Amino acid sequence: MRGKFITFEGADGGGKSTQVQLAADYLRQRGYEVVVSREPGGTPLAEKVRALVLDPELPLSNISQTLLYLAARSEHADKLLRPAVAAGKIVLCDRFSDSTLVYQGLALGKGAEEVNELRLLNAFAAGGLTPDLTLLLDGAPKLLARRRERRGVSDRYERQGLDYQHKLRQGFLALAQAEPERIKIINAEGDLQAVAGAVQRALDALLDGAE
Ligand code: TMP
């Protein structure tokens, strides 16, 4: 039986990585075989691309960045994601194609035509793989920024300030509005357990509905 491909998305600092791990624990307790991965990354080559593209010392044009994210995605989809889903596993992925649409498109103010180009490029890179479910961890940038400061995290994107985080948030919400069946909005402002509970309910709805 085909497995499921579930992605986690959102602006920075929404506690995504932690929620991915908690979701994996939850699903394993329910008896599922779970694979956890992330983008950019997930294979040795894609992890190298990640180090490149997130290096604040290496300024990149938007197009170069986009192509690097897509190269990493192509490797990841080919070598890890598609085989795992085909083998019946539940694959949880921290970010995927929606991040490209938002970070390389909507948050930069790109218009419909350019965003559509990105959609085509995403489909090309992912070999047609699309998520069965996307959980959008959404919260007010100010609140999420405070969390990030506590974690001491800083990278190319996160140093761009609250305005930018607002644009990211709006971009993701626009995608969710356009595809409410696939993209479920999870309130990321609550404490860890409250957010994990909302994630679990969304997972149950997908998996129990599928049984
Ligand atoms: P992370 O911090 O959630 O691990 O993601 C790494 C950064 O990469 C994050 O700031 C978003 C960015 N990113 C893009 O800009 N485009 C993409 O396609 C992906 C997958 C990530």
Helix and strand sequence: EHEHHEHHEHHEH
Alpha-carbon Rg, integer: 16 Å
Instruction: Name the CATH class.
Output: Alpha Beta
The side-by-side strand order for the widest beta sheet comes to 2-3-1-4-5
CATH topology grouping: Rossmann fold
Q: Which hetero compounds are present in the coordinates?
A: thymidine-5'-phosphate
In DSSP terms (H or I, runs of 4 or more residues), the helix count works out at 8
Q: If classified by CATH, what would the architecture be? A: 3-Layer(aba) Sandwich
Overall average pLDDT: 93
The computed structural class is alpha/beta
Main sheet summary: 5 strands, parallel
CATH homologous superfamily descriptor: P-loop containing nucleotide triphosphate hydrolases
How many domains? The number is 1
What would you call the shape? globular
* Low-pLDDT sequence parts: none
Beta-strand content bin:
5-15%
Task: For the record, give the distance between the C-alpha atoms at the N and C termini, rounded to a whole number.
Answer: 11 Å
The percent range for helix content is 55-70%
The strand count comes to 5
Walkthrough of the structure:
The chain is an alpha/beta fold and 211 residues long. It has a single domain, classed as Rossmann fold. The chain has helices at 16-29, 44-53, 62-86, 97-103, 112-126, 141-151, 162-178, 192-210; strands at residues 4-9, 34-38, 90-94, 133-138, 183-187. It has a five-stranded parallel β-sheet with strand order 2-3-1-4-5, with helices on both faces. Helix 2 (44-53) runs antiparallel to helix 3. It is globular and about 45 Å long. The mean pLDDT is 93. It binds thymidine-5'-phosphate. Thymidine-5'-phosphate is lined by residues 12, 16, 38-40, 54, 69, 94-95, 99-100, 103-104, 157.
